[in-house]
Design goal:
Number of strands: 6
Number of helices: 20
Largest sheet: 2 strands, antiparallel
Helix content: 10-25%
Structural class: mainly alpha
Shape: rod-shaped
């Protein structure tokens, strides 16, 4: 290869090895290596590694692969052993040990640099198509390339395990550990590579809202959760709600107190036999309780056993800041009345001395079972005396068919034998001095009405002759005749 070179090709003027310098007996030692005249296309690291392996000076190491006498360095007969190839940084080990040189170093490539680009052992995409569409061009695994997730000898199955996943934005815990990769990393329906980089790691990226937007009112607060809305109440192990994470009052506007705190979740959230489209079996309140409406009071879940009797506009809508059923009841039991019950205020019927001593069940007998409205106490028969008490006067004091007991008897008295009747005020017969001294029975005598005996109060004559003189007996007979006619 040097036969056609001129002296000046190697001994140019004004160089340390010029003919003039050498003739004078000066200059460097005469032996020179290839690199003294030829520029090496090889990477410097490769040259140094080869020299070290063959234990030759760096300038002489070219002869390890290239014959000293040759016409061109571009010699197809140059053979490189596996050991020397390893000096390039790319070992010929499985699966590359049987690959021909031309498969990686295409002869048709233009120039040395194009044919021998100096590939790194992890730059698989230099020779192989990238099935991931360049998704891993950067990130925590970019430096080592494909072998970060795949074995060097095969692409399938991959070697990307839970430990490696911890270096991503979403470490795998709980149920995610057992989830198949393709469940989260799906191929686009429009085609293209399966999505790995850029896959959302918030819960809502993969999971539909099983609550049908119920927690939309808390969107701003939930957005603060790094891993997603669901993580405020759920762990990754299961969507079953851990008690220590879920604050029922905070997230539903319905604190659990009293009897509600003791109830099982299924009492309001009855489980369904089959999961819905979102895999949910936990029931919705509105599907169990037809009356439920969010933000409504007790009757949002409970049927009103009073049938609106306390919401007619005549009763107070609020008592000490309490509304709805809470005006009288707390959440411990509907049978309890922790704030007391003002019978007159709520029913319009004041409990006098006699009524105030009665047990509630005297007028409101318990119902077992409850009626169709859920009521467990009977309604009172009425607010009129005659609704509960027999009329001892056989209708003598009825006005338009109603006996007005209150004209003579006071609800605040102990018994019916006590009365507030004043003869000169409440009757049309004024008692003079003589009559006032008489016993009532002198004028008001017993008569028979049907199968019972009652005291006659009305009608009675008001004229003197009706009780005195010759006409007295006639009057008495007339009154008795009238009594028989009434019967």
């Amino acid at each position: 290869g040097h036969a056609e070179a001129t002296c000046r090709d190697c001994h140019a003027e004004w160089t340390p090895r010029s003919l003039e310098v050498l003739r004078a007996g000066a200059g460097p030692e005469r032996a020179r290596g290839c690199l003294a005249c030829h520029e090496s296309p090889h990477d410097e690291t490769f040259v140094e590694r080869v020299a070290a392996r063959v234990e030759q000076p760096r300038a002489q190491s070219c002869r390890t692969c290239h014959e000293a006498e040759h016409e061109t360095f571009d010699d197809e007969d140059v053979e490189v052993s596996d050991e020397l190839h390893a000096c390039s940084g790319f070992q010929l080990i499985p699966p590359h040990e049987e690959v021909s040189c031309d498969a990686c170093h295409a002869p048709e490539a233009d120039g040395f640099a194009a044919r021998y680009p100096g590939r790194s052992p992890w730059a698989c995409v230099d020779c192989h198509d990238d099935p991931h569409g360049g998704q891993f061009g950067d990130g925590p695994f970019a430096r080592v390339g494909c072998i970060a997730c795949h074995a060097a000898t095969r692409f399938e199955p991959h070697t990307f395990d839970v430990t490696k996943h911890e270096r991503t934005a979403m470490p795998l815990t709980g149920a995610h550990v057992e989830t198949a990769c393709e469940e989260c990393h799906r191929a686009p329906s429009s085609g293209g590579p399966r999505v790995f980089r850029g896959t959302g790691f918030r819960c809502e990226s993969c999971h539909a809202d099983a609550h049908r937007g119920f927690f939309g009112d808390f969107a701003a607060e939930l957005a603060e959760m790094e891993t997603g809305d669901c993580a405020r109440c759920h762990g990754t192990g299961s969507f079953d709600v851990p008690d220590e994470l879920f604050d029922h009052g905070r997230w539903t506007d319905f604190p659990l107190r009293g009897a509600h705190a003791q109830a099982q979740c299924a009492a309001c959230h009855r489980a369904s036999g089959e999961p819905d489209a979102n895999g949910r079996t936990f029931g919705f309140v509105g599907e169990v309780l037809d009356t439920y409406e969010r933000g409504v009071g007790c009757d949002g879940c409970h049927v009103d056993p009073h049938q609106g009797g306390f919401d007619d506009g005549l009763r107070p809508a609020e008592v000490d800041g309490r509304e709805d059923c809470a005006r009288c009841h707390d959440e411990t039991s509907f049978r309890a009345l922790p704030y007391g019950f003002h019978h007159g205020r709520w029913t319009g019927f004041q409990l006098g001395l006699a009524h105030g001593k009665l047990a509630c069940s005297e007028c409101h007998p318990p119902l077992r079972p409850a009626d169709e409205h859920g009521r467990t106490w009977s309604a009172a028969l009425g607010a009129q005396c005659a609704d509960c008490h027999a009329d001892p006067h056989a209708g003598q004091f009825r006005v338009d068919g109603v006996a007005d007991c209150g004209r003579c008897h006071d609800n605040n008295l102990q018994t019916f034998t006590e009365n507030v009747f004043l003869h000169n005020r409440d009757s049309r017969f004024l008692l003079n001095e003589a009559h006032e001294a008489l016993e009532c029975s002198a004028c008001h005598y017993p008569v028979s009405v049907g199968d019972r005996e009652v005291i006659r109060y009305r009608p009675l004559g008001r004229e003197c002759v009706d009780c005195h003189g010759d006409q007295a007996d006639v009057m008495l007979r007339r009154q008795r005749e009238m009594s028989r006619r009434r019967r």
